[in-house]
Structure formats: C-alpha cells, structure tokens
Design goal:
Elements (H helix, E strand, L loop, with lengths): L25 H16 L24 H11 L5 H5 L4 H10 L15 H23 L10 H22 L1 H12 L6 H14 L1 H18 L1 H4 L8 H9 L8 E2 L9 E2 L19 H19 L8 H35 L2 H9 L3 H7 L2 H12 L5 H17 L2 H17 L6 H8 L16 H14 L6 H6 L1 E2 L2 E2 L4 E6 L2 E6 L5 H20 L2 H6 L3 H13 L2 H9 L54 H11 L11 H9 L17 H18 L3 H11 L23 H6 L4 H5 L3 H13 L9 H9 L21 H7 L1 H4 L7 H15 L10
Parallel strand pairs: 1-2
Antiparallel strand pairs: 3-4, 5-6
Helix pairs in contact: 4-5, 5-6, 5-13, 6-9, 6-11, 7-13, 8-9, 8-16, 13-14, 13-17, 16-17, 17-25, 18-20, 18-24, 20-22, 24-25, 27-28, 28-32
C-alpha cells in the first residue's frame, strides 16, 4: 500500500490504449533520467528505488508521504456514501451510469472489469476521501483518529451536494475547462500557487467564490469555541441549506480582531445565526427523522435532475483530478511544512512570505489587491485556517509540539486534572491573592485570579523534586527576582552549530521553593500588568493551566499557544497518562529495540510488522504514528566486543564492500568504515547491505553532496527535503557535510525503522519498493497490488520486474534481487547477501 516507486499518471484524460502504450508520469521519467546518469558511472547498477527517502519519518504527527496517504485512504475509505445514496433513482445518477458504460473507461486500470455501478461508487469514494483529507487538515483530526460522525455523515455529504450544484451552474463546457485547469495546477511552489489562484479567480470567478465559501466555513468550524457544537450535527440536508448556502460566507470575512467597516470578524459569527434544529434540542427523535427524510427528498428533487456530468470527457477530467489527489495532498503537506520551517529560521510571516515568494507581498498587495485574497486562499488550502494569522498559529503550535514530549504531556495532564479535582476556592480568593502579590486589576477581571495557589505551588514543587528533568531550562533561565536568579543555574553549551541549555547544578529544596515562588509571581504579574493579555485570558482555570504548564515548557511559548488557541486546557482534561513505569513510551513494529537503546517496549507482542498491514487496529497504528517521531536515544556507545558480536551475527568479516569507492584520503576512508560499522551494529544490520544501497543511490560515487535536481533528494541515501527537516537538518546542510558526518543522519533515519526488520538485502529493497508485501515475503505466488493500485498498473510501471507479464509476483522480485547481487556484488561478498 505504501509503494514508493509509484505515482499516478499525470494526465488521466489520456487513457492507456494498450499495455505497450503506457504514459509514464514525469516523476518516473525524471527518476529514470537520474538512473541513466548513475549507470554511466556505475554500469552494474540495476534497481531503481525512485524518490524513496520520505518513508518512516513521515509517519509523524502532521505526517506526510506515502504512509500517511495509505493510512488516510484506509481510514477514510470506509465512510458512508451518503450523497450517492441520496441520488439513488435520479436522472443525474442514471446519466452518470450511462456515461460510465462507455468502453473507453476499460482503459483505466481502476475501472477495468467493473460494472457502471461499481465505477460510480469508485468515483464518489475518491471524492469522499479527498474531502475528508481536506477537512481533517483544517479541523486538526489526527491521522489515525476515527472520522467523526458529524464530518462523514453531515459536513462532507453537504459539501458534496454544494460542489455538485457548483458544477451544474457552470455548464458542461465550462466544467471541462475548469476541471482541466484545476488538474494542471502546480502545488509544489507557494509563489506559483498564489499566481495560479489569482489567475484562476479571474477566469472562473463563480467557482472561485464557491471555493472561498468552503474556506470561510472551515475556518469557522475550526475555531475552538465552535467545535463543541459539531458533535450535535445530524442532518446533512439542513446543514447544506442553512449553513453552506448561507449568503454570509460571500462577505469579506477576516480573522483579525478589528475588522474594517466592510468586513466581518470570523470570531463574531455564531451557530445561532444558522438556526439549526440539531442545536435547539426541541425536537423528538421521530420529528428529527421526519425532517431528515423531507430534506433528503428535497435534495433528490433539487439536485437529482441537474446537468453536472454530461459527457465522457467531463468524467475523464474528474478522474484526472481524483487520481492526482494523493499527490496534491502530499505536496500541500510538504509546502506547509516548508513555510513552517522558514518560520523557524526567520520568525516572522512578512520575512517568510518575502523569502518564499521572492518579493515584498504587502507592497504588491497594495498595487494588486487580488493577490491578498489569492494568498489567503492558498494558505487556507495548505491547512492554515485564517490566512496569515493561521500560519502564525500553526507555527506556535509546532513550537509547542516540539517541546511536548511524553513526560511533559503526562505531567501537564496529571497536574491540571489533579488541580481541577482538588482546588478549594472562597469568594475572596482572587482579591486575597492579588493583595498578597501587590497586584491591581479592574474589578471585572479579578475573578480571573481566583486560583488555589497553595495547590499549584505544592504540585510544581512535588513534580520537579521527583523529576528534576521536567523543569524547562528556558523558563528557569528567565525567572529572576531579588532572591532568585535562574540564570545562575543554567549555562549555554555549543552542540554543533546550535546552542543548548544545560543545568550547571541541581537546585536544593530551598532553591526550588525560591524558584517556584518567583516563577508564580512573575506569571501573575505578567497578566495583571498587561490589559491585552488579561483580556485574552478566558478564566482562572486557564491561568492555572498556564502556570502549571510553564514549568515543563517554555513559559513564553505556553502563553503564546494559549492566546493563539492552539494549546488549551480542554486538551488535557481527560488526557490519558501515556507513560509506563515512569518511562517514555517507544513502540516498534516487531517489538524490538536497537542496540544500546534502553527504552522499554510498550507491547512486545505487537503483531504489526508494517504499521498499516495486516489489518492493524486503530490503537496499533496510533501508537506507532505517535511514537515514531520520538527518536530513540542510543544510550552508551557499544564497545568493540559488542560491535564485533553484533556484526558477526550477519556474516560481516571486517571487509567493507566498495571501500575503494569511498571519497577522501585513506584516513578519511578508515573513519568512514569505522563509523559505518558502528551504525550498522546499532541498527542490527550487515553494513555491506547498507553499502550496496548507498552505492545504488549515489551511482557508485558515495558522494554526500549528490542531489536529484528534480526532487532535491540529497546524499548517501538520497534524503528528501521534507525528511531532512524531520531529522533536524536541511538538504543544503547535508550537501556541505563530509560522508562521515552525513552518516549520523543515515543512522537517525534508520533508527526510526528497527534494524531487525531488515534481515536481508531483499528486506531492505522490499521495504523501499512495496512495504505491504513484506508480510508475504515467503510466498512466491503473492501478487503485488493494493486497494489503491492494481497489479496491472504496478506491472506497467515496472516492466523489468514484471518480466513481460501484467502483474508482479514475489517470485519476480526474488529473481530481480538475485540478478542484482550476481551482477553488482563481487563474488567474495555474495555470501553476506544470502
């Protein structure tokens, strides 16, 4: 399912007329060119692992790449097709069925041999999955969370009806042009995307306006204050009529606190304005069901006879867009991450947009106002609700997520829950607290200081006493009073090109108490002395949450996160403590840990070999995805005896494959060999299998600066730009490293996929090419295919593997690997590849 050699054809409007006339995607062509260039310097190279290195690291929270796509398709592909059911028996459905009877659709692998009904279900299923992905990003629904009923049964069906009506109003000829231009949009660059959206808005003004309606709606739904009502929604037809078609969304809506006279603040819009029955609770279940059926019949009459898809050409254009959807969402995720990476470096949206776009956006907007609207639409498509402000919020959220390791999450969840259960307040608590700290605020704001301060203080002292490592050193350094100076306990240490804070010495019990007293006073004073900050504080419980959290996280980041509504008490009210015996959770697919890693395994009996197959539970996937982003600590270096023992298990005899091809002096070659052996031991693999991979990826040069011009993939294992970011570096930095230095990042990459998994060269390549097949490695008759790609399509893209057939078997793959070893690997090394 997570196939990394594959991409959908770039133009589905041109079907394949035969298996000998396969339109190869540009992505594959560019990769083939890359392979051709490599073969010129490394003639024996055979395998073409195209653009692969965004694998395991892309299982993380905001995850990107093929694994995320596969999990999303698996998770979202089970939604009910409410809209298709609504159209049952209508002229529109009959028209689409008639079109899909056309024999030319047999040329599409996913439709070949299917009945018109099955083909139509496929089309609606793809639309449903794409919309679910869109809303999941906007509403921050986790990768493995179940799709909420309000989304799959109400919001998405209503959105489908809305889009159908949009196509109907444009007419068939316009639809063909509209869908054709939409399918050709380039989502790889922010500048190009802004320009395309601006041009699109001018050429298709009606559809652009409809798109803005959806983005405004999703911004409204994404506001934390509005999400509490979402679970009450139960009628897609009412939602369509009263919410989606509400003229309110056509107005100029802004996320800023102070809108211009002609604007509406998004925050001022309320659910009450839509007069939804579901939110009134004044109807019986029978009355609700009756209203539901009436709405459904009305939709049948209203949309059942519209002229949305009139010709095979329109259907082909629609298929073209749908088959590109996975790639589009991956590009969206990558582009969004690129903007956030730039925010990390520049820390300012104006600088980021200028750097990314290549011009001063705000000056250009004054000259061309339409650019501003185009930018907000683009940022909305990237998942940043609220345009530029949404980008800033997402960045603040990302900063916090980096700090929120499992111990911090557990501490915040436990301490806040304990506070809410045990707090003891009096009518005079707030005034007494303000007087004690010599602080003054307006009478109306006093109750925001109704805190059980002794309870807060005792919890913090207890926790940082039991676990000193919980204390955030940035917060400690910033805390200062006449009796306590946090900077005296902290020092800056240079680690590579970065500066890290370390503790000079542990705090004594008296010093801990002085710290907590100073820290709490500063926290209270910060809000009491800043009217704007105080006005943004909803209540005293939120202030307690801030004070408790700011000890374990950077206190400034906590306050920024709360103000931006990306770090809220509600997220921790009933949060489960995700620790086991006081240790961090780490989970690996095969229940093992790398050499030197002393972290406990959560589930040693976990049957999951590949995180999305075979049939993992949601809990399995969630555990894997949640923890894969936490890099296991390697612990103490292994000694020479451990190293020899670890490598000897795999038949390694001390002679490194392709040693003479490693660049540099003899001293540098020896350093490379020594480090390669150490890394291989920690990963529990034979270093020569990794050397074979590096030879393949670098064309036999082992050049750490080698890069793919098309993708930016760089270095010894061709690390993708998005993957480099997850490893804490950039492809530019990787290109400037020596081969020895870059091995550190090779290790980081493979540590996220346990070495025991790669028991052979076949395993390494199988994991790279088609991971779901690893579960069938011993079955020579197993046919490579999945729910998202047919056997024929896969074979068409990899004819060498298929050996002239219309499918690829495990036997074919075995033959391919065997041939590669026999032709590329010298005889004296081949026994290590058995």
């Amino acid at each position: 399912m997570n196939y990394r050699f594959i991409d959908f054809p770039t133009d589905w409007s041109q079907p394949k007329n035969s298996k000998d006339d396969v339109k190869v995607p540009e992505k594959i062509l560019s990769s083939q060119q890359k392979t051709k260039e490599k073969i010129q310097t490394f003639p024996d190279k055979k395998l073409e692992p195209v653009e692969k290195k965004d694998s395991s690291l892309d299982f993380v929270k905001e995850g990107i790449g093929n694994v995320k796509t596969s999990i999303e398709n698996l998770n979202y592909g089970m939604n009910e097709l409410v809209t298709l059911d609504t159209l049952d028996g209508t002229p529109l459905k009959n028209t689409m069925l008639s079109i899909l009877k056309n024999p030319q659709f047999d040329d599409y692998p996913d439709l070949k041999g299917k009945t018109p009904e099955q083909r139509l279900e496929f089309v609606f299923r793809k639309i449903n999955i794409a919309l679910t992905k869109f809303y999941a990003r906007k509403l921050n629904i986790g990768l493995t969370e179940p799709v909420p009923d309000y989304l799959k049964k109400v919001v998405i069906p209503a959105t489908e009806l809305f889009l159908m009506e949009t196509l109907a109003q444009m007419g068939n000829e316009t639809n063909i042009n509209f869908l054709g231009q939409l399918s050709s949009m380039d989502f790889s660059s922010l500048g190009n995307l802004v320009t395309q959206v601006k041009d699109f808005s001018e050429k298709f003004s009606f559809s652009f306006g409809q798109g803005k309606t959806l983005l405004n709606l999703t911004d409204f739904l994404a506001l934390p204050k509005n999400q509490a009502q979402l679970s009450k929604l139960d009628d897609p037809y009412e939602f369509y009529q009263k919410v989606l078609k509400n003229p309110l969304w056509k107005q100029d809506i802004t996320t800023k606190d102070s809108p211009k006279p002609n604007q509406i603040s998004l925050d001022s819009i309320t659910w009450e304005q839509f007069d939804l029955r579901a939110l009134k609770n004044n109807l019986s279940n029978e009355e609700k069901q009756q209203a539901f059926q009436m709405g459904k019949e009305k939709m049948k009459q209203q949309l059942g006879s519209i002229k949305m898809v009139e010709t095979p050409e329109t259907m082909k254009k629609m298929l073209g867009i749908l088959e590109k959807a996975d790639g589009v969402f991956q590009n969206i995720d990558a582009l969004g991450n690129k903007l956030l990476d730039s925010m990390d470096v520049l820390g300012n949206t104006s600088k980021v947009l200028k750097s990314t776009l290549g011009f001063d956006l705000w000056k250009q907007i004054r000259k061309t106002p339409a650019l501003g609207g185009a930018l907000n639409v683009v940022l909305g498509l990237l998942g940043f609700s609220g345009g530029v402000e949404g980008l800033e919020r997402a960045w603040k959220k990302r900063i916090l997520e980096r700090e929120l390791k499992q111990p911090q999450k557990a501490y915040i969840a436990e301490s806040y829950k304990n506070y809410m259960q045990k707090k003891a307040l009096q009518a005079t608590t707030a005034k007494t607290l303000l007087d004690q700290h010599n602080l003054k605020v307006e009478d109306a704001a006093q109750q925001k200081f109704a805190l059980d301060m002794p309870l807060i203080k005792s919890q913090i002292l207890q926790k940082i006493g039991e676990k000193p490592e919980l204390l955030n050193l940035s917060t400690l350094k910033m805390t200062k009073s006449p009796v306590f100076k946090g900077e005296d306990f902290v020092q800056e240490v240079k680690v590579g090109d970065k500066t890290k804070l370390t503790l000079k010495r542990k705090l004594s019990p008296q010093e801990r108490e002085a710290f907590v007293d100073t820290y709490l006073h500063e926290g209270l004073e910060r809000f009491a002395s800043n009217p704007k900050a105080l006005s943004s504080l909803p209540n005293a419980d939120t202030l307690a949450f801030i004070l408790l959290s700011g000890v374990a996280l950077n206190k400034d980041d906590v306050i920024d996160g709360v103000e931006a509504q990306v770090f809220l008490p509600d997220q921790y009210t009933d949060a489960a403590l995700a620790t086991q015996n006081g240790q961090d959770r780490y989970i690996y697919p095969n229940g093992s840990t790398p050499i030197g890693n002393n972290k406990p395994v959560v589930n040693p009996n976990n049957p999951v070999v590949n995180p999305i197959s075979p049939n993992p539970s949601a809990e399995n996937i969630n555990n894997f995805v949640e923890n894969i982003g936490q890099k296991p600590e390697s612990g103490n270096d292994i000694n020479n005896d451990q190293l020899d023992e670890a490598l000897g298990r795999h038949g390694y005899n001390g002679s490194l494959l392709f040693y003479d091809k490693v660049p540099g002096t003899e001293e540098q070659k020896k350093a490379f060999k020594q480090k390669m052996e150490k890394i291989a031991a920690e990963l529990d693999i034979n270093p020569n299998r990794l050397m074979a991979l590096m030879a393949s990826e670098t064309g036999g040069t082992f050049n750490p600066a080698i890069a793919n011009k098309s993708t930016g993939a760089t270095g010894l294992i061709q690390i993708m730009p998005s993957t480099a970011t997850k490893l804490g570096t950039t492809v530019s930095a990787l290109r400037s490293m020596s081969a020895v230095q870059q091995l550190d990042y090779v290790k980081k990459y493979y540590q996220l996929s346990p070495g025991k998994k790669f028991r052979s060269l076949k395993d390494l390549y199988l994991y790279t090419f088609f991971p779901i097949a690893m579960n069938h490695s011993s079955n020579p008759n197993y046919v490579f295919q999945s729910s998202t790609i047919s056997a024929a399509k896969l074979a068409g893209l990899h004819r060498k593997l298929a050996r002239g057939k219309s499918y690829i078997t495990m036997g074919d793959f075995n033959h391919y690997i065997s041939g590669m070893v026999n032709q590329n690997v010298p005889v004296e090394f081949r026994n290590q590849f058995a």
